[in-house]
Amino acid sequence: MVCGLCNCWYRIWLAWDDSLIDVDVLSSGSQFIHARITFRALHNPVIITIIYGANEVAARRDLWGTLEALALNCVDSPWMVGGDFDAVRDLSEVCGTSGDIRMAMEEFNSCIQNSGLLPLPMQGEWFTWHNYSASPCNLWKRLDRILTNDIWMLRYPTLSYTCLTPRTSDHSPLIWQHEIVGIPMYAVTRKLKALKPIFRELRREKGNLSHNVQLAKGFLDMVQNLRAKMQWMKEGDQCTRVFFRKIAHRRAVKRVLQINDGYGVTQTNPDADEASPLIKSFTAEDVKLAMFDIVEDKARGPDGYSSGFFKTAWTVMGDEVTRAVLNFFAKGKLLKQVNCTLLAVIPKVHSPITVADFHPISCCNVIYKVIAKLLVQYLSVVLGKLVSPCQAAFIPGRSIGDNIMMAQELFTGYNQKRLPPRCALKVDICKAYDTVE
């Protein structure tokens, strides 16, 4: 819900979303509102002073004195001061005839210095105000700005703001941004970490979201099943040919072709056709296809996010995730926040005693899974020539049942007495995933 307030002179209006932010007004005047802002997800209060300076120099002197007094109470807190000061700090912030403003500049700069304020990094337009005069006396000034104290700078070193082009007002809007400096993969991991307290607060306020989602999905499945049955009863006989064509296409797409030669000879160097897909660069479409190929209900990794979260929010964060993955292949640097895995053990028997009684399951982060899928996609072209023919499982074109059928063939009639003396050895035979090396 959006809330708001204004000072008693109706010159300054402050609006916020009370589901995200708590606002406590500490003091106010005709030219300022001084408030404590608390982000509910972070629980770290900050002090913010919104400014709308008077047009007269004498009236602004009262504002400068007020700011210096407020600074004494913000020595130990992060403090931000922003808005329309109606004053400039340097002649470079004025374009056009503006009279003698040197005294006003000195008073403004003295107030900033005495208050211990520093300018926040700015992007965008340099001038924030224009008189929009049709006469030759056009005037541009930089009247709007954001200042912070040193504690704010230390706590939020990457914050900046953007000065946009004026629209309906003669002043430029100032947009507060939180920039994360670092390689794309680091930026993604930091933003995902910052989302966690917001999700925890949302879960606390809205109750059992997972249960509500399951109820909604169940209702949706029921409606879709009813619609599908009605459509089948109406069009089933007419669409038989279409369904058979889809089945044939699915079988053709799912078919795995043999990549190793028929003689079992290991090739040391791939030929030109095999080398071509190994050296080409990945594209954004490759990253998206790998992400959407991951099953949504797979176990989450250490970061706590599933592939379903990334798929749902792909329009928002898809570009950043893509840059992070492509940056890894370009630079070869994988952060430890991504390259970490949770090892979960699932008991195979009711009363496990030894380690062999558990199934080990590796829970990896989604970005790590995307990178692994892309690597497998390229290596699958030559994987059959790199792995020994004795390895029958987990290789396209081979089957785990091949060795079982081969052993059964060898032992057929093995106990016949007319054959010469012989023996068989069972060496380290175990099921897949019984051990982790």
TrEMBL record:
It holds the Pfam family RVT_1. It comes from the Eukaryota. Gene3D superfamilies: Endonuclease/exonuclease/phosphatase. Residues 355-437 form the Reverse transcriptase domain. PANTHER family: NON-LTR RETROLELEMENT REVERSE TRANSCRIPTASE-LIKE PROTEIN-RELATED, RNA-DIRECTED DNA POLYMERASE. This is Uncharacterized protein LOC105157594. It comes from Sesamum indicum (Oriental sesame). The lineage of its organism: Eukaryota, Viridiplantae, Streptophyta, Embryophyta, Tracheophyta. The gene is LOC105157594.
